[in-house]
Design goal:
- The chain is mostly helical and about 130 residues long.
- The chain is about 75% helix and about 0% strand.
- It has two domains: about 1-60, no CATH class; about 65-130.
- The longest helix is centred in the C-terminal third of the chain and has 30 residues, at about 100-130.
- Pfam families: PepSY_TM (PF03929).
- InterPro entries: PepSY-ass_TM.
């Protein structure tokens, strides 16, 4: 095989250079150890923000909302009009097909929410019969 052409980085178009630099920065290659330490700091900060967000929600969560069927995602979806229901279903299906791992986690969340909704509805029915 023979080399027929050579392209230097200086000859790349601007968008190709920006893409290369972005990938190198994202991987921690662009500025060496400083870049890697910055990425570690961003990762730790993101984890801390997630934990603090959940903690703040836990502190301010509604009292006794666990068995209220009106607080489930399924019930909120049922309360939407049919165009909004169709749109959210279409978006969820398209995202699930484009991003299978996200689709699987969305499906698992919906199954858990549905089971929670059924349990809450059963509790309400049992209370209304008594």
């Amino acid at each position: 095989m023979q080399v027929v052409d050579r392209t230097r980085f200086a000859d790349f178009p601007l968008m190709a250079k920006l893409t290369r630099w972005g990938v190198d920065f994202h991987m921690g290659i662009l500025f060496g150890l400083a870049n890697q330490l910055l990425l570690i700091a961003f990762g730790i900060a993101l984890c801390v923000m997630i934990v603090v967000g959940y903690r703040l929600w836990w502190i301010r969560r509604p009292a006794h909302a666990a068995f209220n069927p009106a607080n489930t995602l399924i019930q909120a979806w049922f309360n939407l009009g049919w165009p909004a229901r169709a749109l959210t279903l279409a978006i969820a299906v398209m995202l699930g097909l484009a991003l299978p791992l996200m689709g699987a986690s969305l499906a698992a969340g919906l199954v858990i929410d549905y089971l929670r909704w059924r349990a809450a509805t059963a509790v309400l029915l049992a209370k209304s019969v008594d």
